[in-house]
Amino acid sequence: MASTVYDITIIGGGPVGLFTAATAGEMGAACNMIESRFHLGGIMMAVYPDKDVYNFPGITSIKGRDLINNLISKAQSDGMVAHLGEYVHDISMRSKNVVIIKSNKSEYVSSTAIITTGLKAHYSPFVDMIKIRNWNGAGIYDDWPQAAMIKEKRIAVILGRSAESDIPPHIRQAAEKIYLIYDERWMKSTPARTRDSNKGAFEVYQPPWLIREISGVEIPEIAVLENENTGERRELPLDAAIGLYENQARQTVYSNLGIEMAGQHVKVDQRMQTSLKRVFAAGDIAWYPGKVLLLTAGIYEARIAVKNALKMI
């Protein structure tokens, strides 16, 4: 059972979520953030980090990566706690003043919650494989990391999407050892095998070998594989793991929780509060008459949501 009671729990770590956290911290609120990816910044950081962003209030132009890093720095300086690799599957009221947010890994107690997941709330199958106790945030990646992050390390590269068929040169050159694991359970088509798989450059595992979990204490230490034909299990010692999967949409999670929806959007009132008391929404996920899907709008919605959430504390 969670012992910390937060003022605001933010669900979604994209630019709107990070601005929400920075705003809440600036106003003195104790907040935490739940993000399903293994990094903050959402689509902006994952897809177009080097693209110029022009529609952020008060800034003429800024690279997506710089905007995200600035927001992370501001939010963390004000005490934000981020929980990565977690997706929310339940939001409920314990009492009239307490919201319980349950993720796939933990339970959080909060006075209020603000949903900022965007329209495409994502879930990666890789998330459920991570069984690291007291994970410190290092060594787990859902995209190719920079070479310095895996230099001279033993890494497991888990290919769970068809588009990936080779390992980038900077990864091959930096890593001490690479376990290449094909997880075809989530692929839309049979992948082309990496060109190096027959050259002894990697240890290659493909069906019937299945990846079961990445375990360890604070950091990834072991990749556990199982042969689905024989039941044999194999443990691979490692220092980092990269899981490349197609993200699965989770938009329906909010309707399942009894929150009133407008199509794929969450309905909010003029305070940005949803039909579930003490739960607010901002950004593309939120809907009200006249809604405009712009980052600028999401930023102003976030400030309104934070101000009204704090009135309930």
- What's the CATH class label of the largest domain? Alpha Beta
Strand content: 25-35%
Task: Determine the fraction of residues in helical runs and give it as a percent range.
Answer: 10-25%
Q: Please name the CATH architecture of the largest domain.
A: 3-Layer(bba) Sandwich
Structural class computed from helices and strand pairing: alpha/beta
Q: What is the radius of gyration? A: 20 Å
The CATH topology of the largest domain is FAD/NAD(P)-binding domain
Shape: globular
**Spans where pLDDT lies below 50 across 5 or more residues:** none
Order of helices and strands: EHEHEEHEEEEEEEHEHEEEEEEEHEEEEH
Structure description:
There is one protein chain. This protein is of the alpha/beta class and about 325 residues long. About 20% of the residues lie in helices and about 35% in strands. The protein has helices spanning about 15-25, 40-45, 65-75, 145-150, 170-175, 255, 295-310, and strands spanning about 5-10, 30-35, 50-55, 60-65, 80-85, 90-95, 100-105, 105-115, 120-125, 130-135, 140, 155-160, 175-180, 205, 210-215, 220-225, 235, 240-245, 250, 260, 265, 280, 285. Strands 1, 2, 5, 6, 7, 8 and 22 form a seven-stranded mixed sheet that branches. A five-stranded parallel sheet has the order 11-18-12-13-14, with no helix packed on it. The protein starts with a strand and ends with a helix.
Question: What's the arrangement of secondary structure elements?
Answer:
Layout: E1 5-11, H1 15-26, E2 31-35, H2 42-47, E3 52-53, E4 62-63, H3 64-77, E5 81-84, E6 88-95, E7 98-103, E8 107-115, E9 122-123, E10 130-133, E11 140-141, H4 147-150, E12 154-160, H5 169-174, E13 177-182, E14 203-205, E15 209-217, E16 222-227, E17 233-237, E18 240-245, E19 248-249, H6 253-256, E20 261-262, E21 265-267, E22 279-281, E23 286-287, H7 295-310
Parallel strand pairs: 1-2, 1-8, 2-5, 8-22, 10-15, 11-18, 12-13, 12-18, 13-14, 21-23
Antiparallel strand pairs: 3-4, 6-7, 7-8, 9-19, 15-16, 16-17, 20-21
